[in-house]
Design goal:
Blueprint: E1 4-7, E2 10-12, E3 18-24, E4 32-39, E5 46-51, E6 57-59, E7 67-72, E8 77-82, E9 91-99, E10 114-115, E11 119-123
Parallel strand pairs: 2-11
Antiparallel strand pairs: 1-3, 3-8, 4-5, 4-9, 5-6, 7-8, 9-10, 9-11
Amino acid sequence: HVQLVESGGGSVQAGESLRLTCRVSSGSVTTYSMSWFRQISGTERERVALYNSAGATIYVDSVEGRFTISRDTVQNSVNLLMGNLRVEDTGMHYCAASPGRALWGGWSAADFPYWGQGTQVTVS
């Protein structure tokens, strides 16, 4: 059973940065397409960034140029460095993993069978 454990959320001012980390408990992180999603209470989870199993990274337009997703094979984790944070970046952030084939631009929450418990990011 794959467990994902997120850390690094918090409350910051607009313009500041945060770094989220997601550790994978089983299997090499390189064998999964890994993604970060964001959710505001009462709304659907929306995708933020993807690091697929082929080594490619994809971002949604709203975070392009501000966020960086990276993979750490020593820690068996994926990280999300969020820079120049905006109020609209507020929400519960979830890490997700999809084994097997690499996911590309059309990825969605339905592609991911494994999820972390979430970490809250609040920007004011």
